[in-house]
Design brief:
heterodimer, A: 468 residues, mainly alpha, 17 helices, B: 484 residues, six-stranded mixed β-sheet
Chain lengths: 468, 484
C-alpha cells in the first residue's frame, strides 16, 4: 500500500470519474440491471408488507395508504437508481436494494403501530412523516453522490469535518434549541421539527478520523515502547485518543447518552487499529472506556440504573421503578409472543411496549415476524455490512479504505448496541436501528452513508487492474 | 491493512453471532417462561381469542369455554362448580387462576411446547388456536359421595387408588362456585373475589393440599409404629410401661391417654395394642425410646417436609426439628409442631396398602389435543418407599384390627375387611379438636385409600372424636368405591 505521501500524490493525479478507464473489465449495465431487479423486488416486498399490515389489523386493504406508503419510497429509490446509471455506474448493486427494503419494512411496522394510536392521520401519522423523511434522506443521498464525484476530496477537509462534528455534538447542549427527550439531551428543536445532530456527527467523525489517521499513522504506529510483546505508543501520541475519550465521556455526562458515546468511541478505536495495526490501541481504548463506564455507573444514577435493569430486569423493584426495566421487559414479552414465526403483521400487540416505533422497532418486528423475521433482518444488515467490508478490502487508497471500514463499522456497531440492548446482550441505551426506526435524523445520516459507500464502491470497480 | 480488516470482520461477525444467539434464546428457549410471567399482558389478551380447553371427568366437561357475544369471545363455565371447585380452581380474565386451571394453564390455553405443531397449523390455516382438554382421574360417583358425606362440615377428603396414585375424589369445604369468578365484568369479579377472601371459612383454599394444616394426632402413630418396626427393629409384642399418667421428660407437663385410664389391663402394653386402641402414653414412650433421629427419619421418608405436584402443587407437611425429648414424646402421637395435609395422611395409608410403596397421587389421566390425539399421558410413578412389605403387612393387620375391635369401629363395612386409623388432634386449650380418619379397603386387595379431616371439632368442640365424626364419613367414601 502506498505511503502517506503517495496517497496524496495519487489523489491529485487520479483521473476524474468522467475520464473513462483504459480497459473495461466489468460491464456496468449488468450491475445496474441486477440492482433494478433487486430494487423492484424490495419495493414489492415493502408494498406487500403494508397490505399485510392492513389485512392483519383491519381485515381490509386501503389502496390509498398502500400507494402513499409504498409507492412514495419506490419512486425515489428508482430515481436514485437512474441517477446511479449516470454518475456511478460501477457502484455496488446490493447496497441500495438492502437499504430500501429495511426502510420499507420499517415504514410498514411504524404504520402498523400508528393503526393502534387514535388520530394518527395526515401529519400526525408517524408513518407519513417517516415517508417524508425518507424522501428527504434519499434526496440528500442523491445530492451527495452527484456532487461528490471523487471521495478523496473529503480528505482535504479533514479538519473542517472535525470542527463540524464538534459543533453538531455541542448543539443539543445550547440553551434555546437543545431539547431533552426521555432523559437524554441529544436533540435540537426548531419550531415543530426535532433533529438529532449526533446521527449526522457520526459521518463527520468517520471522515475526520479517516483523514487524520491516514496522515498520522506513522507516528502513531512505528514509534513507541515494547511491552509484553506489544508496541505501546509514546505519551505524547496518546493525545488524540484521550481527546476522543474525553468527548465520549462528556456525552455520557452532559447528554446522558451512553449509546452514542459507545458508538463514537468504538468507531475511533476500530479506525485507529486498522490504520496503525497496533493492538495496543485497542487495549488502551477498551480499557479507557470500560474504566470510564465503570466510574460512570458508580457516580451517575441513570447509568447505574441501566446496569441494574440489564442484570435483573424481572425484579419487582426494577420493573416498577421510574425509568426502570418496564420497557425492556415489555419488549422481551413482545419478542416471546412472536416466537419462532411471529404473530403475523398486524396481528401482534407491539404497541404495548413504549417507543415501539423508534427504539423498540426491532422488538415490534420480532413480535410480528418472529425469530425467522428477525434472522432475515439481521441477515440483511450482515449483507449490507459485507458489501461495505468488501469496499474496504478492495479499495486502492488508504483514505477510502479507512472511510469504508469506518462507515461500515458504525452501522454494525449501531445495530449491535440497539438490538443488543433490546435483547439483553448489553445494557439498554437509546439509539435508533439504522433504516428501520422512526426518526428523520437517523434516516438522513444512514442514507448519506449509503451514498458514500456507493461512491466508494464505484471508485473501486473503476480501477481497471482490480478484478473484484 | 488487510490483516486488521479481517480481524474487524471477525469482531463484527462475533457481535452478530451474539445477536442471533440472544434472539434465539428469547424467542425460542425462554418464550414459554416469558409468556408465563404474570405481568405479561399479551398472554392474557391472547387467551381471549383462544378457545380454552375443557376439564373432563369421565369424558364429561366440568369446565369448558363456550362462545360468548362479547369482546372476549368465550365464556368459561363450570358444571357442578361447587362440587369440583377444589380441583378445577377458578379462572379469571385478569385476576389470576388456581387449581388445575392454573397448574395446566399452558395445555388448556394451547401454548405448551407439545402443542407447537398445532399452533403452526393454526397459523397456516388461519384458525383461532384451541387449547387441549384435560381428562381427570376423578370418579364422579366417589366425588359426589365424598361431597355429600362431608355435608356442611369444614374439612377435606381425598381418596386415591393406592396401586396407581390416581386420585378418585378430592373435596374441600367450604366450597365456592367458580362461575362467579369467570364473569367478564371485572368489577363484579373483584367484588366476588374479595368476598371469598374475606370469608372466615377460606373457601378458595383447597384444604387437601394447602393452607394452615392441622396436627395429624393419632394418624401419625402409623409413622411412629413404622419407625419402631422397621428402623428400631422392635417386634409388635415389644412391651412398654403402662401408667395412667405420663410425665414428659425434663418437663413438668403430663400426658394422658384418651379416656384417662391405662391402655388396657396390665403393667405393660405391646406396641400393637397401643396402636389398635390408639393410646398416647405408650406411643410417647416408644418415641423417646427410639430417639429423635429414628422418628425424624421415618417422618421424612413418608414425605413430611417435601412437596410434589399432582400437578396442582402440594404444600409440604411439617415435621420440624425436635428441640427436646418432651417435644419428641408429643410428636410421637402427632401433636407438638407436627402439621399434616390430608394428602400426607392418605399417603401413609397408601404406603401400608401398597406393600410399603407410595405411588405419586395424581389428578390427570391425559391431555388431549382438539383432534383427540393424546399429547401427554400420565403413568403411575413411585413417590417414595418409606417401609418394607413386611412392615406394611404388619401395620395393615393392626389397622384392620383397629376397625374391627379397636378405636376405629365406625368405619366397619359389612362383608369387607377395612383397615383404618383415627386421629383426634388437640389445637390448644379451649380450641375445638381436629378429627381425622385414614384407611383403605379391602385390606387384602386395596382398591382405595382415603383420608378425611374435619376441622373445627365438627361442631362438637372438644368432645368429638375421629371415630365418631370422621370414620362414618370415610366409610361412605369407601363404600362408593367398593359398590361400583
Amino acid at each position: 500500500m502506498a505511503s502517506d505521501g503517495g496517497v496524496v500524490a495519487a489523489s491529485t493525479t487520479e483521473a476524474a470519474p468522467a475520464t473513462k478507464p483504459v480497459r473495461r473489465i466489468h460491464v456496468p449495465e449488468k450491475l445496474r440491471n441486477l440492482e433494478i431487479f433487486l430494487l423492484l423486488l424490495a419495493c414489492l416486498v415493502n408494498a406487500g408488507a403494508v397490505v399485510l399490515v392492513q389485512l392483519g389489523a383491519e381485515g381490509a386493504v386501503d389502496y390509498g395508504q398502500v400507494a402513499l406508503l409504498g409507492a412514495g419510497l419506490s419512486v425515489l429509490v428508482i430515481g436514485a437508481h437512474i441517477a446511479l446509471r449516470f454518475v456511478a455506474p460501477n457502484a455496488d448493486p446490493f447496497i441500495l436494494p438492502i437499504a430500501t427494503l429495511l426502510n420499507g419494512i420499517g415504514i410498514a411496522e411504524i404504520y402498523r403501530i400508528d393503526l393502534q394510536i387514535p388520530g394518527s392521520t395526515g401529519w400526525d401519522s408517524t408513518a407519513v412523516r417517516q415517508v417524508v423523511w425518507s424522501a428527504i434522506a434519499i434526496i440528500a443521498a442523491l445530492v451527495v453522490i452527484i456532487a461528490l464525484r471523487n471521495h478523496r476530496v473529503l480528505q482535504r477537509y479533514t479538519y473542517v469535518f472535525m470542527a463540524l462534528s464538534g459543533v453538531l455534538l455541542v448543539l443539543p447542549l445550547l440553551p434555546g434549541i437543545g431539547k431533552e427527550i426521555y432523559g437524554a439531551r441529544v436533540w435540537i428543536g426548531i419550531g415543530p421539527l426535532s433533529f438529532q445532530p449526533g446521527e449526522v456527527a457520526k459521518i463527520a467523525l468517520a471522515i475526520f478520523f479517516a483523514g487524520y489517521l491516514v496522515s498520522r499513522r506513522d507516528s502513531l504506529s512505528v514509534v513507541g515502547r515494547k511491552f509484553l510483546g506489544m508496541r505501546f505508543p509514546r505519551g505524547r501520541d496518546l493525545g488524540p485518543i484521550l481527546v476522543i475519550w474525553a468527548a465520549s465521556m462528556s456525552v455520557i455526562i452532559f447528554q446522558r447518552d451512553l449509546g452514542t458515546a459507545l458508538l463514537y468511541f468504538g468507531l475511533f478505536v476500530v479506525m485507529i487499529y486498522v490504520a496503525t495495526a497496533r493492538l495496543s490501541w485497542v487495549i488502551i481504548g477498551v480499557g479507557l472506556f470500560l474504566g470510564g463506564a465503570l466510574i460512570a455507573s458508580r457516580v451517575l444514577v441513570y447509568v447505574n440504573d441501566r446496569f441494574s435493569n440489564w442484570l435483573d430486569p424481572f425484579s419487582t423493584t426494577n420493573y416498577d421503578a421510574q425509568g426502570g426495566s418496564y420497557q425492556l421487559v415489555q419488549g422481551l414479552f413482545g419478542l416471546a409472543n412472536g416466537g419462532l414465526i411471529g404473530t403475523g403483521l398486524g396481528q401482534g400487540q407491539p404497541d404495548i411496549t413504549p417507543l415501539a416505533q423508534s427504539d423498540y422497532i426491532v422488538a415490534s418486528l420480532g413480535e410480528e415476524l418472529g425469530m425467522a423475521g428477525l434472522f432475515a433482518i439481521l441477515a440483511l444488515y450482515l449483507l449490507f455490512i459485507a458489501r461495505g467490508l468488501r469496499i474496504s478490502f478492495a479499495g486502492t487508497d488508504d483514505f477510502g479504505r479507512l472511510l469504508g471500514i469506518g462507515l461500515t463499522f458504525v452501522i454494525a456497531l449501531q445495530c449491535f448496541i440497539v438490538i443488543g440492548g433490546v435483547t439483553r446482550v448489553i445494557p439498554l441505551t437509546g439509539l435508533t436501528t439504522p433504516f428501520l426506526a422512526a426518526g428523520g435524523s437517523s434516516l438522513v445520516a444512514n442514507w448519506i452513508i449509503v451514498a458514500l459507500l456507493l461512491r466508494l464502491s464505484d471508485t473501486v470497480r473503476n480501477q481497471p487492474r482490480l478484478v473484484v | 491493512m488487510n490483516r486488521e480488516l479481517k480481524r474487524v470482520t471477525i469482531v463484527i461477525l462475533a457481535m452478530f453471532a451474539a445477536l442471533f444467539l440472544s434472539v434465539t434464546t428469547i424467542q425460542f428457549f425462554s418464550a414459554d417462561a416469558l409468556a408465563g410471567d404474570s405481568r405479561n399482558a399479551r398472554t392474557i389478551n391472547n387467551s381471549y381469542s383462544n378457545q380454552r380447553g375443557a376439564i373432563l371427568v369421565d369424558g364429561q366437561p366440568i369446565a369448558q369455554s363456550v362462545p360468548s357475544a362479547d369482546q372476549y369471545k368465550y365464556q368459561r363455565t363450570y358444571t357442578n362448580g361447587p362440587l369440583y371447585s377444589a380441583i378445577t380452581g377458578y379462572y379469571t380474565l385478569d385476576q389470576g387462576s388456581s387449581g388445575i386451571e392454573d397448574a395446566l394453564d399452558q395445555e388448556l390455553s394451547g401454548t405448551s411446547g407439545s402443542q407447537f405443531l398445532s399452533q403452526l397449523n393454526n397459523i397456516v390455516t388461519g384458525q383461532n388456536p384451541q387449547g387441549a382438554s384435560v381428562e381427570l382421574t376423578i370418579d364422579p360417583k366417589v366425588q359426589q359421595a365424598a361431597y355429600d358425606a362431608l355435608g356442611d362440615l369444614q374439612g377435606a377428603i381425598v381418596a386415591v387408588e393406592p396401586k396407581t396414585g390416581r386420585i378418585l375424589a378430592m373435596v374441600s369445604k367450604p366450597d365456592y362456585d367458580p362461575n362467579v369468578l369467570a364473569a367478564h365484568d371485572t368489577d363484579s369479579v373483584i367484588a366476588q373475589y374479595n368476598a371469598l377472601i374475606a370469608d372466615s371459612g377460606n373457601p378458595l383454599i383447597n384444604r387437601t393440599l394447602n393452607g394452615n394444616f392441622d396436627p395429624p394426632g393419632s394418624t401419625f402413630k402409623i409413622v411412629t409404629s413404622s419407625a419402631a418396626l422397621q428402623n428400631a427393629g422392635l417386634t409388635e409384642d415389644h412391651q412398654l410401661p403402662n401408667p395412667a399418667l405420663y410425665h414428659l421428660p425434663e418437663s413438668d407437663r403430663t400426658v394422658q391417654n384418651a379416656g384417662g385410664g391405662t391402655c388396657g389391663p396390665g403393667d405393660t402394653v405391646s406396641i400393637k395394642t397401643a396402636f389398635v386402641l390408639s393410646c398416647n402414653i405408650p406411643m410417647a414412650e416408644l418415641g423417646v425410646e427410639m430417639g429423635q433421629k429414628g422418628l425424624t427419619d421415618m417422618a421424612k421418608a413418608y414425605g413430611y417436609n417435601s412437596g410434589f405436584d399432582t400437578p396442582i402443587p402440594v404444600q409440604a407437611s411439617q415435621f420440624p426439628p425436635l428441640e427436646d425429648d418432651a417435644t419428641l414424646a408429643l410428636s410421637s402421637f402427632g401433636q407438638a409442631s407436627v402439621r399434616a395435609s390430608p394428602m400426607q395422611i392418605v399417603e401413609q395409608s397408601m404406603a401400608v396398602a401398597n406393600a410399603g410403596t407410595i405411588m405419586q397421587p395424581n389428578l390427570v389421566d391425559d391431555v388431549r389435543a382438539p383432534d383427540l390425539t393424546v399429547l401427554k399421558q400420565f403413568e403411575p410413578k413411585t413417590l417414595s418407599q418409606p417401609i418394607t412389605s413386611v412392615t406394611a403387612s404388619t401395620l395393615s393387620s393392626w389397622m384392620v384390627e383397629a376397625v374391627n375391635s379397636g378405636a376405629a369401629t365406625n368405619a366397619r363395612i359389612e362383608g369387607v375387611s377395612v383397615a383404618g386409623k383415627t386421629g383426634t388432634a388437640e389445637n390448644g386449650t379451649g380450641d375445638p379438636y381436629t378429627l381425622w380418619f385414614t384407611g383403605f379397603a379391602p385390606a387384602d386387595n386395596p382398591q382405595v385409600a382415603v383420608a378425611v379431616v374435619v376441622q373445627n371439632g365438627g361442631g362438637l368442640g372438644e368432645s368429638g372424636s375421629g371415630n365418631e365424626v370422621a370414620a362414618p364419613i370415610a366409610k361412605k367414601v369407601l363404600e362408593a368405591v367398593l359398590n361400583k
